[in-house]
Amino acid sequence: MQAVLSLKKYIKPYMVFAIIAPLMMVLEVGMDLVQPTIMQHIIDYGIAQDNTSYIIKMFGLTVLCAFLGLLGGAVCSIYASKTAVNFAADIRQDLYETITYFSNSNKDHFTLGKLITNITSDVEMLQRALTMLLKVFVRGPLTFLGAIVIVFLTARELFPILLVVVPILAFSIYFFTKISGKLFLKVQEAVDAVNTRVQENLAGIRVIKAYNRKDHQIDQFRSVNEKLMKRNITADQIIGILMPLTAFVVNMGIIAALWMGAFKVENESIEVGVIIAFINYLMMIMGGLMSSSNVLMQIARAVPSAKRIVAVLEEKPEITNSESPVKSSIKGTVEFENVHFAYNKQNEAVLKNISFKVNSGETIGIIGMTGSGKSTIVNLIPRMYDTDQGLIKIDGRPIYQYDLETLRGEIGFAPQKATLFSRTIEENVKYGNDEATTEDLIEALESSCAYEFVEKLDEQEQYLITQGATNLSGGQKQRLAMARAFIRKPAILILDDTTSAVDSISEKRIQRAITENFKESTKFIVSSKISSIRHADQILVLEDGCIVGQGTHEELLETNTTYQDIVSTQLVRGGTLHE
Amino acid sequence: MNKPTGRQVGPPSLGRHPGPRFNGPAEKAKNQKATLLRIWSYLKNQRIGIVSSVFFVIVSSILSLIGPLFIGLIIDEHILKLDIDGTIRMVLILAAIYIISAVFTWLQTYVMIRVSQKTIQQLRQHLFEKFQSLPLSIFDKRQQGDLMSRMTNDVENLNAALSQSVIQIVSTILTVVGTGIAMFYLNWVLAVVTLLVIPIIVWSTKQIIKRSSKNFVMRQKDLGNLNGYIEETISNSNITTLFGKEMQTIEQFKKANEKLRASALSADIASGFLGPVNNFINNLGIALVIGVGALMVVGNVGVSIGVIASFVTYTRQFFRPINQLSNLLNTFQSAIAGAERVFEILDEQNEVADVPDAITKNHYDGEVEFRNVDFYYQKDKPVLKNISFRAKAGETIALVGPTGSGKTTIIQLLNRFYDAMSGEILIDGNEINQYKMENLRDHIGVVLQDTYLFSGTVRENIRYGKLDATDEEVERAAKIAYAHSFIKYLPQKYDTMLSSGGMNLSQGQRQLIAIARAIIEDPDILILDEATSSVDTMTEVQIQKGLNNLMQGRTSFVIAHRLKTIENADQILVIKDGAILEQGNHDKLMKNNGFYASLQQQLQVQ
């Protein structure tokens, strides 16, 4: 509940709307409730006394009531929508901004998929619940309570019937609502199982065909599919009892009203119009109860969504600017002093006691096996994560003192996973530098050996990349991601294993371009291939998060056994031929 | 990677989002009649259920019509005449009617739910089995999300329609017609007065739906755009951070969000009128009945108080279904459209069927020959041109060439992922289409470039290569593939659960498991398509040893990028632009001094 309350501030700007909506709903419900009473008066006074003008007057009154009800309902609907839509849009905006400024560790904490669901379906769920709350939730209980009160006031003779019928109705609705929650949870599990199976089978269709496992897959699917069917049947059949049951209970109320009414009319304690009005109120009571329970379910389902949203909104970005960030320009001397780092603080450290220094303009190669911590080192430089212990300095100043924007603005980073956006090639590369000219663009593309394939495309730089860049090969993606880093002309250039899918000949051309075009920049090259780093001014050999060797190719070749091992496995002709 | 050319380029298709349950415009099916007939062919299996369900609906609808008639009758004939005994007698009959009505209503749902769920289950099963029988070209052509949504959204729409709408439409029609008859029977003047309201209902509902549909389409479009934007930017958010583009990204988001705010407001407000307007018309109808009815009672034209009571109840019964009808028809329409999309897939051609008397073998020697093989995805863009080569049993063939040259396609023809357009492919002297496809694939082991693992344990994933493999066999295969060394450090070792797509392992580790999976299959012909591309070199050398053991005595096709692996092959095929450029072993090709030699030399020059 705490979570829901902390979203209160998003309603505040629309508080007037949020108050008007239920108030107008009160008007609509009030008018609905008055109608049977007027009807009763028409029958018991107008007809009984043959009073035509009274009937016409009362008829006018009912029509007026109907119009007032329409007014109330319409205005309520407008303001409820206004409140809910604006509320949702504001939350969505705040959520998105919060997430955009999240550090990697924040994102790891929530996982990207959950964050996406949060901002899409959770917000939507909340919006729907709020609309319902403002519209129906007032309507249901109000109709229900109002009808009971009116019966008590105008048809007290028949009121005892309500004392029996209403508790039975309320209990059965409560009971079935509760059960249906449980049943549908089970159905949902079965639905998820079916969806996962289908999704996997679509994604892994090649493997299935290659291994000839069609029948195996079909058998597996049959069992989840049957389970889904069985659970659906059980759930629907049990819940299907509710409707006939409530109708039955209400109908029994009508029977009781007629029975009792007959005696009361005979001993002249009530008029016949009272019975007719009572029957109408009874139906309203049922309707009111049913719709309240529906809304309650909706709201109950929105509470977890609200909790998840609040958790995201309240998460503090882990990496922020220091109090007085330094915005001075960066030349590019990078120094690590006894750096320790672990992604998960309970687990073993990924980096242990890392110390090295690169001067601006130099190239440093980092090599090691998968999982040795190569990528982690370079991810610490733009503060994607912060160190647990030790210091990283750029131009002699600890990096946390720099303004984040300045720091990252001076770094050109091509990450291991070459992610591109669903825009044109030009837009993707210029993402690295808004002010880049067409010449800059072509230069960057040429440096990364991307121009050779871009040139051949019908649309050239205007070629539209699909979501997930499915219309490019792995090597093409890597080349474009490098071009995006190159176009920044950064003080520090970081290539995190960006040529794994690029053929050796192109790689060599890229290396040459980097040496020529980025003389001033400090260059970090992470790779598991000797050929990518052998010409570096300095090479770090990493094993299990520790530096086990440091020096030039020739030095390491003489002294370092790990390095010798790597070299011997890759030999002189260990190059790669194609992508 | 070898993808079919001509892949659609354009903005990502927007997933369908669970919009609010207002009145979205229903999608229309192209051929409603044919689709309906086909849905019926599925329902036919449940004929008894349907017939009895319809019977129950008819009975319960008629009973619910009799109820109000009785109420009026009791008031007029018994209560007003102070006839207590008569009242009790009639009330008991009414009670019986209500009991039967309740039982029948429940029975009808009970039966119909079975009918629809069984039908849906069958349809889902058919669709799934169809997925398994479709040729790969369909999966290239259609997006995975599209196929997925046919299995989920479309089938679900049909389910909703079958389990509720069908019965509701029947009962609505019965109720409306029955109520109409009952009202005319009671008093035609009052009936006409009541029916006067119907044109207003139809007109106003239509207006509202027309307006809200338009806004709804806008709203769905904006929502789709926004969600697409969210998905992409959040998935790629590390790029945003690295390049310091937070402000710009937020600015763009704001534009899309504001657009949605505006369109959502107009859509929600327009559709929100439906409720109050319907309520108003109901009230107006009842007011008319009471007003005119009361005047008629006073004017002594054959209307009694009981008739008014019956009419009020009927009026309530009459309008509710009419209000719902348009909603029902919408559900129904999108269900038919959904069913049509499902049938569209069911009508796709299956993978080629086996020829009659297809050959099955327990062992293939592994002699493979391509004779003038051509292949294309699109006629004007040939992928393979006149490919001919011969591999003797037990040989290792390396395929070399730039991206998109057609290497992967060649091996995909071998296990019949695709069929050649012209030319012949022979294994052990027979054309491959003479073999039973299942038998052939059982004896060809493949490690694909894009490794796919299923959700399940590590053990289950390795065992996928041989379903009846023992735990020891699994472990042995893992050791050969050098997967054992990391598996033993996993939290539950071989019983560690992998998430779908194997995302909690590194790409290299996934490849190792895929190799173990191929090893355990013990195939006669082995295909390795960049099997070790994501494994670091140290590990690769070790796996290579294992693979060398495995390749011993089996015909193997290897697409690799490490020159070392290629050098040792018995035969190297250099493929360029879909044709074989050079062919021979390493020494021969080096002597030829052609493309291959120039590649080698370029790499030598440091």
Walk me through this protein's architecture.
Chain A: Residues 19-301 form the ABC transmembrane type-1 domain. Chain A: The chain crosses the membrane at residues 14-34, 54-80, 136-153, 159-176, 238-260, 272-291. Chain A: InterPro entries: AAA+_ATPase (IPR003593), ABC1_TM_dom (IPR011527), ABC1_TM_sf (IPR036640), ABC_transporter-like_ATP-bd (IPR003439), ABC_transporter-like_CS (IPR017871), P-loop_NTPase (IPR027417), Type_1_exporter (IPR039421). The complex is a heterodimer of chains A (579) and B (606). Chain A has three domains: 2-313, ABC transporter transmembrane region fold (Up-down Bundle), CATH 1.20.1560.10; 328-410 and 492-505 and 519-579, Rossmann fold; 417-489, Rossmann fold, CATH 3.40.50. Chain A contains 21 helices and ten strands. Chain A has helices at 2-5, 8-11, 15-47, 52-100, 104-110, 112-154, 159-203, 205-211, 214-239, 242-266, 272-314, 374-380, 404-409, 425-430, 438-447, 451-454, 474-486, 504-517, 530-533, 553-559, 561-570, and strands at 334-341, 351-358, 363-368, 389-394, 397-398, 411-414, 492-496, 522-527, 538-543, 546-551. A six-stranded mixed sheet of chain A has the order 6-7-8-3-9-10, sandwiched between helices. A four-stranded antiparallel sheet of chain A has the order 2-1-4-5, with helices on one face. The radius of gyration of chain A is 36 Å and the shape is elongated. Chain B is α/β, with parallel strands linked by helices. Among the domains of chain B are: 25-176 and 338-350, ABC transporter transmembrane region fold; 368-605, P-loop containing nucleotide triphosphate hydrolases (Rossmann fold). Chain B is built from 21 helices and twelve strands. In chain B, strands 6-9-10-3-11-12 form a six-stranded mixed sheet, with helices on both faces. Chain B is elongated and about 120 Å long. Classes of the chains: A alpha/beta (579), B alpha/beta (606).
